[in-house]
Amino acid sequence: MVNTEYRAQYQTRYETGEADDTGGSGDELLVTELDDEGMLTTLRLYSSVEQSIKVESTTLDNTDSETVFKAHGVSEIDTGDFENPVAEVPAQSKISVKLDSDPTGDIAVNVRVDERTG
Q1: What are phi and psi of 87, to 5 degrees?
Q2: Which domain holds residue 58?
Q3: What average pLDDT is seen over the chain?
Q4: Is residue 13 one of the residues assigned to a domain?
Q5: pTM for this predicted structure
Q6: Residue 33 lies in a domain
Q7: What is the DSSP string of the chain?
């Protein structure tokens, strides 16, 4: 948990991913990389049908992987903030938002990532 008074030490970026059931999109909705330690601050998912998703943190050299968030049977998620992030991740990591199966219906995911700068 990070106290709001340290927000100036982080750089914020917003990223979006989407999928549909037309095929070829696989299970990954979004992947983002961090050079320094950081956090997946917010996670928002919107889907036309219920989905099961997971968020994984993996080192860039693929030596260590951890599931940091899971949700089953959801069509909408809106969770996390700066003081209570969805997940904190170490430096040299990538964050992946994945479906547990092939996409069904239309799916959009929005994340806010805060990466430490100082």
Answers
A1: -160, 145
A2: 25-116
A3: 90
A4: no
A5: 0.88
A6: yes
A7: ---GGGGGGEEEEEEEEEE-TTSS--SEEEEEEESS-EEEEEEEEEEEEEEEEEEEEEETTSS-EEEEEEEEEEEEEEE--SSS-SEEE-SSEEEEEEESSS--S-EEEEEEEEEE--
Is-contact 74 53, C-beta < 8 A?
yes
Overall number of domains in the chain: 1
Over residues 50-55, the mean pLDDT reads: 93
- Res 16: pLDDT: 96
CATH number of the domain within which 65 lies: 2.60.120
Contact between 46 and 75 under an 8 Å Cβ cutoff? The reply is yes
Q: Looking at the domain assignment, is residue 46 inside a domain?
A: yes
Tens of pLDDT, residue by residue over 92-107, are: 999 999 998 777 889 9
- pLDDT bucket at 21, cuts 50 / 70 / 90: confident
Is 111 inside a domain boundary? yes
Residue 88: Cβ-neighbour burial (10 angstroms; 0-12, 13-18, 19+): middle
